[in-house]
C-alpha cells in the first residue's frame, strides 16, 4: 500500500545550524522508483497556496457557497487543490467531505453525463447504473448523506478546468444546490480554471444571471505562480524542511537524496537567488516578455531532475549540486518552449 509523503507545517530552525538529530544516520531503505518525488505523490505548500488556503478556509467558515479561482495553465492549481483537500479538514477540525471534480467538460450536453461525471469523480460505486432520474436521486442522496455526517452540514466541490462549464451546467448545479438546501445541506462549489473563467463571471454579471454569480461566483482569487526569489525559496524550503518520507522518519526529501551534504548544512533553499537569476537570464536570452512568473509545474520538474539525476538514487550520485546543474535542469523542463508558445498564442 502506498504511504503518502508527509509535509510538515511546523516551523524549523535555520538550516545553517546543524542540529544533533539531523546528523547522518541510516538512510531509509525505499524500493527503487517508489519515493514520493519519483511518483509525484506529495503536495508542496508554496506562498501562493498558503494564501489561497487562508482564503478558502475563511470562505468555508463564512459559508460562502462559491468562488472563482483562476490563473494561467501550469501554475500549480491542481497541486493547490490536492493540498487544500488534504489540509482544510484538519485545519477546521471538521471531517469535511471535499471532492476534486476533473471530468466535466464543454461537450457534456446531457444531464445524465453530467451526473455520471460527478459521481465517478466522487468515487461512487454505482455512477453509471440506472436511468437519469435514478442517477439524479443517487447523486442528491449521496451528497445529503455526506453533508449530514459533518457538523457544518456541508459538501465541498473543487471543479477543475471550470472554464469549460456553460450556463446549462450551472443550471443543473443550481438545481442540486437548491434541493440540498431544502435538506439543510450546503453545497459549496469552488470553480478553478484558466483566466477565461474570470471573463465568464464578467459576462454572467452583465447578462443579469445573478443566480449563478450569487451561488457559485461570490468571491474570486487570482492564482499566481512563483513571482520572486522569496516564492522560490519557500518552495525549496518545503523540500528541505517541511517534507518527510517515510512518515516520522525525520528524513526530508533533500536529506534522502543528498544525505551527506544535508548533514553538513547544504540546503536547496540556498540556491533561491541563483535560481531566480537563472530564470531572469534565460528569459532575457530567449526574449520572453511579460511579468516574471514561474509555473509551479516547471519548478517541480527542475527539482525532480536535481534529485533523480544527481542524488543518491542516480547512477553517479553527487555530494552536492551546483548552479550549473540547476541551469541544465531548468532547460530540461521545457520552460523556454512553453513560454515562447504562450507568447505566440497571444
TrEMBL record:
- Please name the GO terms that the record assigns under molecular function: ATP binding; ATP hydrolysis activity
* Top-level taxon: Bacteria
The cross-references to Gene3D superfamilies, in alphabetical order and at most eight, read:
P-loop containing nucleotide triphosphate hydrolases (3.40.50.300)
Q: Which residues form the ORC1/DEAH AAA+ ATPase domain?
A: 68-198
- Which keywords accompany this UniProt record? ATP-binding, Nucleotide-binding
Entry protein name: ATP-binding protein
Q: Which organism is it from?
A: Paenibacillus anaericanus
Amino acid at each position: 500500500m502506498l504511504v503518502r509523503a508527509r509535509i510538515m507545517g511546523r516551523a524549523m530552525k535555520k538550516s545553517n545550524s546543524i542540529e544533533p538529530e539531523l546528523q547522518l544516520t541510516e538512510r531509509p531503505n525505499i524500493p527503487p522508483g517508489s519515493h514520493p518525488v519519483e511518483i509525484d505523490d506529495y503536495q508542496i505548500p508554496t506562498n501562493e497556496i498558503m494564501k489561497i488556503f487562508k482564503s478558502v478556509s475563511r470562505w468555508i467558515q463564512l459559508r460562502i457557497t462559491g468562488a472563482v479561482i483562476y490563473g494561467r495553465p501550469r501554475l500549480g492549481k491542481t497541486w493547490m487543490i490536492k493540498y487544500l483537500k488534504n489540509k482544510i479538514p484538519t485545519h477546521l477540525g471538521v471531517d469535511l467531505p471535499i471532492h476534486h471534480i476533473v471530468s466535466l467538460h464543454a461537450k457534456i450536453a446531457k444531464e445524465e453525463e453530467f451526473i455520471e461525471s460527478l459521481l465517478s469523480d466522487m468515487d461512487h460505486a454505482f455512477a453509471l447504473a440506472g436511468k437519469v432520474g435514478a442517477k439524479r436521486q443517487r447523486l442528491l442522496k449521496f451528497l445529503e448523506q455526506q453533508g449530514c455526517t459533518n457538523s457544518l452540514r456541508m459538501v465541498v466541490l473543487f471543479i477543475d478546468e471550470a472554464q469549460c462549464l456553460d450556463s446549462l451546467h450551472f443550471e443543473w448545479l443550481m438545481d442540486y444546490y437548491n434541493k440540498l438546501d431544502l435538506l439543510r445541506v450546503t453545497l459549496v462549489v469552488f470553480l478553478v480554471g484558466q483566466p477565461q473563467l474570470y471573463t465568464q463571471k464578467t459576462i454572467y454579471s452583465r447578462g443579469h444571471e445573478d443566480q449563478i454569480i450569487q451561488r457559485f461566483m461570490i468571491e474570486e482569487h487570482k492564482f499566481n505562480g512563483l513571482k520572486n526569489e522569496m516564492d522560490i525559496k519557500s518552495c525549496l524550503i518545503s523540500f528541505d524542511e517541511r517534507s518527510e518520507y517515510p512518515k516520522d522518519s525525520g528524513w526530508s526529501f533533500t536529506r534522502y537524496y543528498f544525505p551527506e551534504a544535508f548533514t553538513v548544512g547544504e540546503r536547496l533553499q540556498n540556491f533561491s537567488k541563483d535560481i531566480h537569476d537563472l530564470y531572469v537570464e534565460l528569459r532575457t536570452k530567449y526574449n520572453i516578455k511579460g511579468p516574471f512568473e514561474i509555473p509551479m509545474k516547471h519548478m517541480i520538474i527542475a527539482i525532480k531532475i536535481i534529485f533523480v539525476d544527481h542524488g543518491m538514487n542516480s547512477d553517479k550520485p553527487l555530494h552536492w549540486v551546483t548552479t550549473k546543474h540547476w541551469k541544465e535542469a531548468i532547460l530540461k523542463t521545457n520552460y523556454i518552449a512553453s513560454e515562447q508558445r504562450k507568447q505566440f498564442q497571444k
